[in-house]
Amino acid sequence: MTGPTEPNHPTADFPARNRPGAPAFDFDLVNDQKTGVYEARTGGTEVAGLTYQAAGANRIVLLATAVLPEFRHQGIATELIRRVLDDVRAQGKTVTITCPIVRTFIEHHPAYADLVDHDHPGAGTGVHGS
Question: Which residue ranges does the record assign to the N-acetyltransferase domain (predicted)?
Fold first, then answer.
């Protein structure tokens, strides 16, 4: 069985529809390791993405989050970030944050703060797990 850490593989392991604040529609999470983008796809169309860069074997740098204009304000960025961080956790990796949207998400969801790399938290981050 394949999973989200494999290139270009959609993941249906994250049932978003039942989660409070979830987007109005569900999407597949695709990790395109070749381009360094976690994609939110629905109906074969990429509606959002979170770019990243590998920083060694156990850390990734979360660079930027983008949502197509017609899909904004529907909770997609929030759910995309949640799914990416869940995937990072499943891989046993940490993150360095340069994306302010990811930084704000973690500040509002401290259960993810332990994923922030203590030696390389990112620019302007004050988020650390206890």
Answer: 30-117
Residues 6+ apart with CB under 8 A from 87: 4, 5, 11, 29, 31, 38
pLDDT at 61: 98
Amino acid present at 7: P
Residue 76 near residue 27, CB atoms below 8 Å: yes
- Of 65, 71, 74, the closest CA to residue 22 belongs to 74
Q: Where are the domains of the chain?
A: 10-115
Fold of the CATH domain 10-115? Aminopeptidase (3.40.630)
Asked if residue 16 has pLDDT above 80, the reply is no
Whole-prediction pTM value? 0.79
Contact 49, 101 (CB under 8 A): no
pLDDT of residue 123: 77
100-108 vs 76-91: helix crossing angle, rounded to 10? 80
